[in-house]
What we know:
- By secondary structure, the protein is of the alpha+beta class.
- The protein folds into 3 domains: 3-122 and 132-139, no CATH class; 154-189; 210-252, no CATH class.
- It is built from 4 helices and 11 strands; from the N terminus they run ββααβββαβββαβββ.
- Strands 5-4-3-6 form a 4-stranded mixed beta sheet. It has a 3-stranded antiparallel beta sheet with strand order 9-10-11, with no helix packed on it.
- The longest helix has 21 residues, at 102-122.
Amino acid sequence: MTIVTSYDVESDTWTHHHGETPARQAFRQAVAAIAAKAKETLPECDGRVDSAVKIVLAGDVELLEGGKAKVASQSNGTTQYFVVNGTCECKDFPKAPSGWCKHRIAAGLAKRVTARVRAPLDAPATGQAAPASEPTAVQASPAVPSTPLPEAPASVNCYVTMAGRQCQLTLRDTDETRLLQRLAVVLAQYPITQACTPPPAPPTPVVDGPPPCAIHGTTLKASTKATGTWYCPVKGDDGQYCQTRWPAKASR
């Protein structure tokens, strides 16, 4: 028979349970949900996330003051402790993507799980009995703030049209060059639809010769005195020609 130890934050006591209790199952489900989110954020750290889950479930994470965490790591039959505070002293830290070794991930998981455990206790009183606290394998600390899991080092948003609908697509990766290559593949699958270009306007017709006289409607005649000018051949009662000219004379 398995003996499970849980920690009650409200009473600050440890309780031994025989078998898998519903609260313990809820706790494991919470760890699994947060771990799945971590895998989405850091796809290259799947193995490290799995190792971090084992560390948390084994109760090998102790949250300290100031956002620090003491994480136990077993190697060669011995237990070694690392203090995690944005960095880690383990050998994998310099090699891990963005420094997310299993110890840093375990600390992040523990903080998120602890925040879930304390949330019902910190809520204002509603006159109803508080729900039973979830068991946790980490040591709760009221002074430790809830910190989000790490964001992907590189991400990009773009809009594509799928089935006539505009959708927002978010790509995340740990390598910026590879992220841009993935973006190029996506954009190639969804090219921009070129807008229809209206046909060009028909050219303005060119008038062959001068227009007719606006007063008499007669055809203007070319002047023999001023080359390139035209005049109206109609004479008035006074014997003078119509003053219509083309091109029109500038008024003085």
